Amino acid sequence: MSVPVTHDDVSVRTRAILARLGVDADLDVPRSHASIVARSPITGGNLASLRTADASDVDAVVADAKAAFAEWSTVPAPVRGGLVRELGELLREHKDDLGALVSIEAGKIVSEGLGEVQEMIDICDFGVGLSRQLYGNTIATERPGHRMMEQWHPLGVVGVITAFNFPVAVWSWNAVLALVAGDTVVWKPSEKTPLTALGVQALFERAAARAGVNPAVAQLIIGDRASGQALVDDPRVALLSATGSTRMGRAVAPRVAERFGRVLLELGGNNAAIVTPSADLDLTTRGIVFSAAGTAGQRCTTLRRVIAHSSIADELVDRIARAYDTLSIGSPLNSDTLVGPLIDAPAFAGFQKAVDAAVADGGTVRAGGARVDEFGEYAYYVQPTVITMPAQTDIVKHETFAPILYVLTYDTLDEAIALHNDVPQGLSSSIFTTDLREAERFLSVAGSDCGIANVNIGPSGAEIGGAFGGEKDTGGGRESGSDAWKSYMRRSTNTVNYSNELPLAQGVKFT
Ligand code: NAD
Q1: Which of 141, 116, 239 is nearest to 187 (CA)?
Q2: Most buried among 109, 136, 279, 302, by the most CB within 10 A?
Q3: What is the maximal distance between C-alpha atoms in the chain?
């Protein structure tokens, strides 16, 4: 167990970081229904009280973003990349501070807080390159003397709603691609992590000043669900990118569809790993422990289910349980901590409810299962938990945002893949095997039904170079690398006739 830190320490450190990042917002507005209280899950104490944006604030911000789009969309893409380069440089300069703020507000351990900022830097590097690679196709036409091509144009205002657990990186995945694409951005971060958002916005505004760009191209709304809904319903928002729970996605998607807006949804996961008899159990155990217990189980890609062959399941569970015994739980600001707190009391209630439900369904707790209560009444630290299950019951199919790993067994690979896919979500997945046929089968159309499928790597910890996202209740969106930029642009198909004739397609005659 690492040493608890005091709330005063956390509070003083937070204010100093915010000042260094250049945040000048009023952090002490009087508490009322119109304020959001920023707190740290490390101690459960309050850090600041901020004004909540109401519908008229959202309206004004979107109007500014729409106005800024008129000019920004005409700036050549490689010049737009210059703004992203400045942002990447500032993130490098302030990596330690912003990473620590992520630890303070989201509860991530030091290396994961820094890793999240590194992910922002990586996507900035990617964005600078992308700004010179927004390619369209030239297509063979059936008509002589004609040329057909595709161009990609900026889309408009992009609304970005983000979750608490990736409080800075998810904004950057969206904002960098959108800005390079020529769009303008309005961000509504989680009400649980407003301070990291203020820190990012302050850095962005400095980047805009360095690049000589109107800062209205990327703006921030500090607000709650109602502020998010105002963004969702605004017809000037051409694309709404929403990251969070499946419940949120179900509320948001039909409202955007009703006004024929575009949505990009990054919702909940229920990620599994199949462990076959040929798996290297040392490597497998390490992969499982990071993916299941890391970030205290609060990643969308957290490993929540292991589907182990019955011949190795007992040994695997013993190894995981032994590894869990060695994990240090405590303040994420202590560099030896591996498991930090849950975000808040409702998250802890969800943990407890899930453990109880799994036991009621015949599950056996093989590791953890309880709260670690030496960190005070309002801080919610729990032991990473392993529960062996007789079957994939409803609780196993449900995403509980906490470090609970359910273990199921199988006898044939067909059975394992059927169990794997028999959940509503479809984000990330893995197989641990040294058998080429098993690995390829898992990656084939007859294997994992997820957006991400890995071999001998756990499901969490993606790189920015690949497209990120998942299927089914995960929402179908793709962000970050590969050709995810296309979601932020509109395609125009152009046909040019450079002949003196006017042949019609499909041989149609009209004279
Ligand atoms: P949440 O759904 O409670 O909130 C996410 C965001 O949506 C917040 O900003 C919130 O204010 C906003 N919101 C909620 N309801 C809304 C509504 N009706 N209209 C407009 N905005 C609304 O999620 P959370 O607890 O912050 O995050 C955890 C969840 O996010 C988990 O389910 C996790 O799997 C998911 N997540 C998914 C990804 C991914 O890329 N697939 C990444 C991170 C987190």
Answers
A1: 239
A2: 302
A3: 87
User: Which residue is catalytic, options 105, 266, 438, 479?
Assistant: 266
Tokens encoding 447: 């294997």
Cβ(267) – ligand 1 distance below 6 Å: yes
d(CA 373, CA 393): 29
For residue 399, which atom of ligand 1 is closest to its CA? 32
CATH for 271-463 (3.30.1510.10, 3.40.309.10, 3.40.50.300, 3.30.70.270): 3.40.309.10
401 in contact with ligand 1, CB cutoff 6 A: yes
Is the minimum distance from the CB of 243 to ligand 1 under 6 angstroms? yes
pLDDT by residue (tens digit) across 70-111? Answer: 999 999 999 999 999 999 999 999 999 999 999 999 999 999
Q: Which atom of ligand 1 is found nearest the CA of 301?
A: 34
pLDDT in tens, 289-335: 999 999 999 999 999 999 999 999 999 999 999 999 999 999 999 99
**Domain 53-267+475-492 is found in CATH 3.90.700.10:** no
Residue nearest to atom 42 of ligand 1 (CA): 300
pLDDT band at 194; cut points 50, 70, 90:
very high
For the stretch 40-75, pLDDT in tens is 999 999 999 999 999 999 999 999 999 999 999 999
Query: CA nearest 173: which of 132, 226, 125, 222?
Result: 125
How does strand 237-243 pair with strand 262-266?
A: parallel
Q: Is 93 a catalytic residue?
A: no
pTM metric for this prediction: 0.97
250 lines ligand 1 (CB under 6 A): no
**Ligand 1 neighbour 248 (Cβ under 6 A):** yes
Nearest to 414 by CA among 248, 254, 274: 274
Q: Which residue intervals of the chain bear CATH 3.40.605.10?
A: 53-267+475-492
